[in-house]
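pls design
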């Protein structure tokens, strides 16, 4: 009888520890050429970004940051200096960001969830238009707007739709 009680208590404790370890979302990856630079994890409140956490990158450039979920899908960003990479988080999930420190805002990959893949696709489409025609071109490029509108209509209440609606390139709003 005592062994059964001990086994039941041990199982309960094990399940409790396991559930606690899964209660945070995580962003990890590597940033080449970032040794000694500060990588900031930031969140936004009414358009104002504030730091949640930071890490000084070592020679390997590998990092991992974790936070308690906000309770709703949201957009976060990683920032090195004045260059940022945006990523969505919905609940308890993990995303990965890999890139280079010198061109962090443009030379990166983002993966880990369907929303992360979609947001990465949005940013790559926008970057291609900016590269071809400059920042102001995002306001008038009809193909870009059609593609982004299709993404919006695919999930109009999703976090990626929110990102698209509020996205600016420099001071130019896309929509």
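designed seq:
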């Amino acid at each position: 009888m005592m062994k059964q009680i001990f086994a039941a208590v041990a199982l309960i404790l094990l399940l409790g520890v396991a559930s606690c370890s899964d209660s945070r979302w995580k962003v990890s990856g590597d940033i080449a050429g970032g040794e000694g630079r500060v990588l900031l994890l930031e969140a936004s409140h009414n358009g104002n970004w504030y730091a949640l956490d930071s890490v000084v990158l070592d020679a390997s450039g590998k990092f991992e940051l974790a936070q308690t979920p906000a309770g709703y899908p949201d957009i976060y960003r990683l920032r090195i200096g004045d260059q940022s990479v945006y990523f969505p988080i919905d609940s308890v999930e993990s995303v990965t960001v890999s890139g280079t420190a010198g061109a962090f805002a443009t030379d990166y990959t983002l993966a880990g969830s369907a929303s992360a893949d979609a947001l990465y696709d949005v940013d790559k489409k926008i970057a291609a238009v900016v590269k071809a025609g400059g920042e102001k071109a995002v306001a008038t490029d009809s193909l870009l707007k059609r593609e982004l509108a299709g993404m919006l209509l695919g999930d109009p209440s999703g976090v990626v739709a929110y990102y698209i609606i509020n996205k600016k390139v420099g001071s130019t709003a896309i929509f």
